[in-house]
TrEMBL record:
This is Polysaccharide deacetylase family protein. It is found in: Secreted. It is an enzyme of class 3 (hydrolase). Its EC number is 3.-.-.-. One of its GO terms (molecular function) is hydrolase activity. SUPFAM superfamilies: Glycoside hydrolase/deacetylase (SSF88713). It comes from Paenibacillus violae. Keywords: Hydrolase, Membrane, Signal, Transmembrane, Transmembrane helix. The keyword Transmembrane applies. The chain crosses the membrane at residues 7-26. Residues 203-363 form the NodB homology domain. InterPro entries: Glyco_hydro/deAcase_b/a-brl (IPR011330), NODB_dom (IPR002509), Polysacch_Deacetylase (IPR051398). It comes from the Bacteria.
Length: 363
């Protein structure tokens, strides 16, 4: 029985020791827990974010300059170079279409809008200024001149290609009163080519008359003369001397009165329907006859009906023509192909307000 007692005693001793140890442990643990919980709320967030921020900052400061250094000198962060080459590469193909497409303006307009994206790039990084300066310098050299496209000047209600003498008078008065300067063809070309030897007028404009109707001599010339306005006549020599059309005497007088005379095809043909040889005849013979009759250069072409194809363009280049006018609507600019200059058709039926808004739209 003594063994049993001893056993019970030693067992209860062991249990007593264990409970004491446990009590000690338990009394220690809670105090440690409280401490960590409170500190965790307060300190832990700081520790985490601070280290993250440090990582981000160091990534920005170290990685970016490295990347820049690899790309090019010290200039600009990644954003800007990607913007600028796009603006330039858009401009270049648009500037030299040399095909019979009408897509000129849609390409050019984004170019001028590309000037605007510059400020955002300035705000997104601090190093910028260099590139935007280059950009604005380039685009500021754009030349854009309205070229009005008239035909017959007579009274023919309902015919949009014919404008009444009164309306023409009203429009010339408008141009005069609003400070427009109608140009000779050569002055127009000088401006378009960026020749700054003469001071450019504030509001240059070119007046063109197509086909060589006799009323251009009888009606238009006296009205323009009243204001001292020069103009350009695109004539089809194969139609001169016919009823309703100018004869060479009249054309000479118009030239003496400040009109430039240039070719519009021999017989006002649909050029794309002709063979290359036929086109060449229409283009070259018209020029030759004008030069023979008037003794002046006639190397600015105007497409009859505005129509042309690749052969037409090739022939014009081949025969040394300098420019060609279309009837594609818009201002003529130095960003258009020289053989695809745009004009503004003057609808004989429209009122002065429509005429004015045509001149005020920026193209
Ligand atoms: Zn015509």
């Amino acid at each position: 029985m003594s063994f049993r007692r001893k056993g019970i005693l030693s067992f209860s001793l062991v249990i007593g020791i264990i409970t004491i140890v446990l009590l000690l442990l338990v009394s220690c643990l809670p105090s440690a827990d409280y401490g960590t919980e409170e500190e965790a709320d307060a300190a832990a967030p700081y520790i985490i974010t601070a280290s993250d921020e440090h990582q981000e900052l160091s990534a920005l400061q170290v990685d970016k300059p490295l990347a820049e250094a690899e790309v090019e000198s010290v200039t600009v962060p990644v954003v800007v170079p990607s913007v600028v080459p796009e603006a330039v590469s858009n401009a270049v193909p648009g500037a030299e279409p040399e095909q019979d497409s009408n897509e000129g303006t849609t390409l050019f307009l984004p170019l001028s809008e590309d000037k605007n994206p510059v400020p955002p790039s300035v705000t997104t990084n601090t190093y910028v200024p260099v590139v935007p300066q280059k950009n604005t310098g380039k685009t500021s050299s754009k030349v854009s001149i309205p070229v009005l496209n008239y035909h017959s000047v007579a009274i023919d209600p309902g015919n949009i290609v014919v404008i009444s003498p009164d309306k023409l008078e009203e429009q010339m008065a408008y141009l005069h009163d609003h400070g427009y300067t109608p140009l000779s063809l050569e002055a127009f070309i000088r401006l378009l080519e960026g020749d700054t030897s003469e001071k450019a007028p504030e509001k240059p404009i070119l007046l063109t008359f197509d086909d060589g109707y006799i009323d251009n001599y009888e009606q238009a010339m006296p009205i323009l003369a009243k204001y001292g306005f020069p103009a350009t006549l695109f004539v089809s020599p194969g139609m001169t001397e016919q009823d309703g059309y100018l004869n060479w005497e009249q054309i000479k007088k118009m030239q003496a009165g400040g009109w430039d005379i240039q070719p519009h095809g021999m017989s006002h043909p649909h050029l794309p329907k002709l063979t290359a040889d036929e086109q060449a005849y229409e283009i070259v013979e018209a020029r030759k006859l004008i030069e023979e009759h008037l003794g002046t250069k006639a190397d600015i072409f105007c497409y009859p009906y505005g129509e042309r194809n690749k052969t037409t363009l090739k022939l014009l280049k081949q025969h040394g023509f300098r420019y060609a006018f279309t009837i594609d609507q818009g201002f003529a600019t130095n960003e258009q192909s020289p053989f695809l200059l745009k004009r503004l058709f003057v609808n004989g039926e429209e009122d002065l307000q429509a005429f004015e808004s045509k001149l005020l739209m920026r193209k």
